[in-house]
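User: For documentation purposes, I need each entry recorded in a consistent format: the amino acid sequence on its own, followed directly by the corresponding structure tokens. There are two entries in this batch. Please keep commentary to a minimum and don't merge the entries.

Assistant: Recorded as requested. Entry 1:
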Amino acid sequence: MTKKKYLSNKKIAQQTISISPALKEWIKRYVNVNHKKDPNDERFKSVSAFITYILDNIMKLFKEGKTIEDFKRVEDQVYKDFFDKFTFKATIPLYDMVAESNRYVPISFDFITRFVLAVYNFYRNIYLKEKNYEQLKLLFERFKNRVYPSNIVKELKLDLFIDKNKKFGTGALEFVGKQRNLHFENCKFFAAIFGILGVKVTDFIYSPKDYYCRLELLETDLVFKEELAKKGRIKLLEENVAYITNYHRMLIDKDRHLWMNLADDNELFICFKSKNTFNNWIKTIENDLRKFGTHEDFLSKILYFFNKIHWIKIENISGLSFRIEQSIEKNTEQKQLLTDYLSQYKTISQIEDVYYLK
């Protein structure tokens, strides 16, 4: 590292440099804006003072061993402080695997209330004071520096298209990931955050092979509302995420995602195609109950199984009582599988429509 010579620090030497008119105007505008914010800040007293401050501090960083390339990796302290409250380091393959089962689960506002409201307030405090698209682009670039490049983000780009003749601007977010399921979750995340900020997703282009997505965006009147307007933002969040988690996409993905949704509907039930299939499943469950459970809770866990596949409704688990669903009562074959199996362990008695294992 080149050492600094011990010369005077008095500002009497001059250095002429050539820069583009655009850069010159950018620096001048930046200094003027910040000088208005704080007239007492010596760094923005003049363009010369600002450039001197920047060069002096950059040379100090070089002295500490930093390089020019390091500046591309500098993390915005404001963003770091914000995201550190909500993020943690994780093993990517593990969490990508966990995210697999969550692909088509909608993002619930109630579940992430604290985070999305924090994002909204962060945006409001930084952007709404300016209400300037250039400031919005800068806001996004600062966020981008936080997440890109990384082990899960390959490319991230936001384009804004402003037409003065139209009331609301449009835009597009392009996002290329590196992990299949985490990329899909992040697509949902971006759609949700745009909804909270008042931006509507009008189209979603997705390539599972390339881990690529493009969100087409449209401002709404919620963008510039300083009040929360919670109901409107939640509605927009849900509509945006639905572009990603809908059945149009789910039906061509793995079967498990549809079955997870079907399992939540108590009006549906599992029907085994053969007695052999039923026996194979019940045997697998029995083995785990005997291996990991106790003899005392064996039958109660078996009842939980039949409850899960919507064959029965448990009346009293400690008393081993239950009601058989009407659809199973009418299905002679499936009901026979149920009663034949339970009769191996206990006598089945019935009082009105409640069954008891004695």
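Entry 2:
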Amino acid sequence: MKLADLRKLAIRRQFRIRFALRNGMECVVDEHGVARVPALKGVPDFDLEMELAPASEFVLEPAVSGKDSPKPRTVRRDGLAAMTSAAPSAHDDE
């Protein structure tokens, strides 16, 4: 599973996907597919793709919160990988 897979899933499902980095920070991939590290104050000394590799738990949050929106949920890596492989590719929409 690559960062591009998380970005596609976040866009298609309108999720925010959070995962912990090895340095204690957190990465958030938003519903627009933008990966951010909110606690980052300068130029990073790490590669998000490399930080994603050991991540084992992810938090999925609905991008739009409201009374009827689902609650954030924690998903293990294998469950998220299944979601990314089940998501249709861009060519399936054509």
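Summary note for entry 2:
The first strand starts at residue 15 and ends at 20.
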